[in-house]
From TrEMBL, chains A, B:
Record domain PurM-like N-terminal: where: 37-148
Protein family membership: Belongs to the HypE family.
Gene Ontology annotations of biological process type: protein maturation
Protein name: Hydrogenase expression/formation protein HypE
Domain PurM-like C-terminal per the UniProt entry, residue ranges: 160-312
Short name of one Pfam family: AIRS
Natural source organism: Pseudobacteroides cellulosolvens ATCC 35603 = DSM 2933
Amino acid sequence: MSDIITLAHGSGGKTTGDLIKNIFVKHFNNDILMKNDDAASFMLSGKVAFTTDSFVITPVFFNGGNIGKLAICGTVNDLAALGATPLFLSCGFIIEEGLPIKELEAIVESMGNTAKEAGVKIVTGDTKVVQKNAADKIFINTSGIGIIPDGIDISGNNAKPGDKVIVTGTVGDHGCSILLERERLDIFTDLSSDCAPLNKMVGEVMAKTGNIHVMRDPTRGGVAATLNEIAVQSKVGIKLYENRIPVKDQVRGVCELLGMDPLYMANEGKMLIIAPDDSVDTIMSVLRNSAYGAQACIIGEVTDDHKGRVVMNTLAGGNRIVDMPVGDQLPRIC
Amino acid sequence: MSDIITLAHGSGGKTTGDLIKNIFVKHFNNDILMKNDDAASFMLSGKVAFTTDSFVITPVFFNGGNIGKLAICGTVNDLAALGATPLFLSCGFIIEEGLPIKELEAIVESMGNTAKEAGVKIVTGDTKVVQKNAADKIFINTSGIGIIPDGIDISGNNAKPGDKVIVTGTVGDHGCSILLERERLDIFTDLSSDCAPLNKMVGEVMAKTGNIHVMRDPTRGGVAATLNEIAVQSKVGIKLYENRIPVKDQVRGVCELLGMDPLYMANEGKMLIIAPDDSVDTIMSVLRNSAYGAQACIIGEVTDDHKGRVVMNTLAGGNRIVDMPVGDQLPRIC
């Protein structure tokens, strides 16, 4: 086999077949994928959640993960955010001619490992190759299917005044870590992306209480964009307390240095949970005992005031509007 | 709104929101998409088919369609090939900064129209933007979900000796048409891609008979690659009769001129159907009365001989092996 990806690997011919067998089947190995049809098939019954995400992050390998791990986590977390148990994933690769096959295998291997951790099967896929400079190394699409348990109705439309806003850990780790890698700033080398599959933690929370109104993972645009979306969708205000928002010292330091705001930085292993007051203690107790939620904090509440807006009570004691970002501090963060 | 796509359109912020509202929601409009969560949700019960495909075709607009129409047809046809009724699609866009928004809208509009023709809903999506020269105009991933009726078991593993091989129309139209566009050969300007959603035609066939062993759409690598895959999966031989394979005169002409083989050229609106002798008349009669199947032909049969191989009885009277292609005659054909 060649050492690098060539156009023939995306042809649908023998070379594609070899790549599928030697790389994808090796690491994604499961009974459904093995049927080798153009679509996977399996039994399913109930309320289904279905989501898709394309990943174009640069650099492809970063401290704490790579584009493959990120692709699995992103889709698993989007399903978990609706309260669904993620079950089946598809993956579509668009690869730039010339990518070393050992880099592809490292990416695919970590997809296989992360899928295993999350308890999901990668059941169908597709590989396209484009010529040099027609893509940037590798783009991955993952779509996913999960089942939402009976009686669960979690949606960005469901926040209610009086609800509390929880974040499951420190804010801005992913965005800040990618920024450092990209700019080759060798300060804080112990900072890494928080990229993680959150479905098992969310499942443990939901085993204790179904009384959750909204969950959403604050990726692109960070906590600020996500809470603004929810405020608009649910037609409520959201009030944050700056002194309660967990931010790592390194992230705070980098943001101060570069004039950025951790609230707008992407996270890939955090969930925002909005729930009524009487289920908050239960939720916090499960989160605090989980590896990915040990630093969970209640950072704000849903209000009847300033509908459609997020307002933050600042360290200085005043209130400021946390706007929806127009563009992004950092493109290609996921 | 800007006239071209900028990095901000992929940021997850306000500019992304405007694009979603003004372009995607406008043309994909349906109740499930409108919930605006990170995942769509809907009820489903039974045997589910799930597939994914990324589309990287160049040129993006071609005679008979564009990348958007192709993306809907490709995924709908992969589901139909398992005998599934396609229901829900996701779409993930990766767009190169600088794409004119009116080109994006033309693509999205034809996705909306094709989805309507096929009777499927686009229920969830994702948009990423990469900087100039990090992608080639636009790539689209579509994943899809369908339901396979009870008792149906159609798979590339199911071909049986004695089965007949049907192709639902002329071979090589898509590949040949793209080749002409790409090379700016202005001969045969009436030749166009066969790009079409085949699910309704397949549904009509299945309403008359469930007695079908294999269906697969011969896209990349054409009829040759697809039949080779099936021969290997089903551990059977496949015998073709060259004089029965329908090829348009223009396609034959271009292939002769350029030394290419229509059997290896991509199709985007054709299905290969392998079925037992006693259901062939029924299948052919439905196909012949359908707009997308009027030129259906029985082109060969499944044999006990030469297992894993496709052999063609040629016009000259001899037999030749139709090999699995190694690479592709034409990259980025879909």
